Amino acid sequence: MVIYLIIALILAVLAALSARRFADFRADRQATEALILSQPAAPARFDPVMVAPLPEPARRFFLYTIAPGTPLYTVATLTMEGKFGMGDRAKPDYMAMSARQTLAAPTGFIWRMHARRGSMRISGSDTGQWTRFWLMGLLPVARMGGDADHTLSAFGRYIAEAVFWTPAVVLPGPNVHWELVDVHTARVTVRHGGLSQAVDVTVAGDGRPIQVRFDRWSNANPEKEHRWQPFGGYLSEFRDVDGFRLPTHVEAGNYFGTERYFPFFVVDVTEIVFPHD
Questions:
Q1: Nearest-CA neighbor of 188 among 58, 65, 75, 60?
Q2: pLDDT tens, residue by residue, 192-228
Q3: pLDDT tens digits for 56-90?
Q4: Other CB atoms within 10 Å distance of the CB of residue 192
Q5: Structural domain boundaries in the chain
Q6: For 41, which DSSP code?
Q7: What integer is the mean pLDDT of 229-258?
Q8: Pick from 3, 98, 61, 88: nearest CA to 235
Q9: 135 touches 141 (CB < 8 A)
């Protein structure tokens, strides 16, 4: 009888975990569909006049990144392969990783990933509302979000990514302001829903963005306390996609520009799609 009770308990736990995993899959799908629906149905087309008043590095950036006449889509779906570091600079502890992301700034994003090292598997999703990861597809190892710290940290991430993957989002407007930093760098500040994030973009002579840097609200520090910390990365391997010229290799991490910089996110983008009718 005791054995039967133990078996019944194990089955009940497995059923509960499976139900939670299914709920996560459903939430991922619903979040993705909602973000894709935010794509403008009939977007304006890019005209260099739109960026004429901007600081010179910002103007260079847009003229390199968006071809004249390009529909200004603001939602993109990206497929990527690479590695994700679970450690630090001294011991990166990289795992092979594949992911699919829908980026719809300033509304939000969803990043769904699978990582592996040897027999270990980690999978899950990250959004502006939650971070949910599972070990071996069965055991929840990280469930967080739904608070102001998580929301602000996520906002920094997807605004920075919008700069180089959905640049139409950061064209000048009521909630997007550009200013000069130096001869090769401009700063964009995006405001949305009471949040604000500034991102510095450094461009080459032809306007190609080569790095982004920003202060991110993060607890990725020994004290595990949320505070503003330098974050950023390097961009390369540009590809033309539907009138946009976008980087397909990105290396990014905490403490960018310091001796503590650790590129825990290293990816090659294999596909970029701007979903629309």
A1: 58
A2: 999 999 999 999 999 999 999 999 999 989 899 999 9
A3: 999 999 999 999 999 999 999 999 999 999 888 88
A4: 15
A5: 2-273
A6: S
A7: 97
A8: 61
A9: yes
Sequence-distant (6+) residues with CB within 8 A of 219 are 149, 153, 225, 226, 227
Alpha-carbon distance 241 to 271, whole Å?
9
With beta carbons less than 8 A apart as the criterion, state whether 250 and 269 touch.
yes
> Two tokens at 222?
């020994």
Straight-line distance from the first to the last Cα atom of the chain, in angstroms, rounded to the nearest whole number: 60
Q: Is 241:229 a contact under the CB 8 Å cutoff?
A: no
| Dist CA 237 CA 88 (whole Å) | 26
Q: Which of 235, 187, 185, 189 is nearest to 205 (CA)?
A: 185
- Quick check: bond before 106 cis, omega within 30? yes
List the structure tokens of 271: 């596909």
Say how far residue 22 (Cα) sits from the centre of its chain.
24
Helix (H, G, I), strand (E, B) or coil at 63: helix
Distance CA 106, CA 224 (A): 27
Structure tokens that stand for 153 in this block = 């940290």
The CA distance from 258 to 27, in Å, is 38
d(C-alpha 22, C-alpha 24), whole Å: 5
CA distance 110 to 104: 9
* Residues contacting 246, CB < 8 A, separation 6+: 65, 164, 165, 167, 238, 239, 269, 272
> Does 130 score more than 60 pLDDT?
yes
Cβ atoms of 163 and 170 within 8 Å: the answer is: yes
The alpha carbon of residue 179 and the mean position of all alpha carbons in its chain are separated, in whole angstroms, by 23
State the pLDDT confidence band at 22, using cuts at 50, 70 and 90: confident
2 pLDDT higher than 90? no
Q: Which residue in this structure is represented by tokens 């039967």?
A: 4
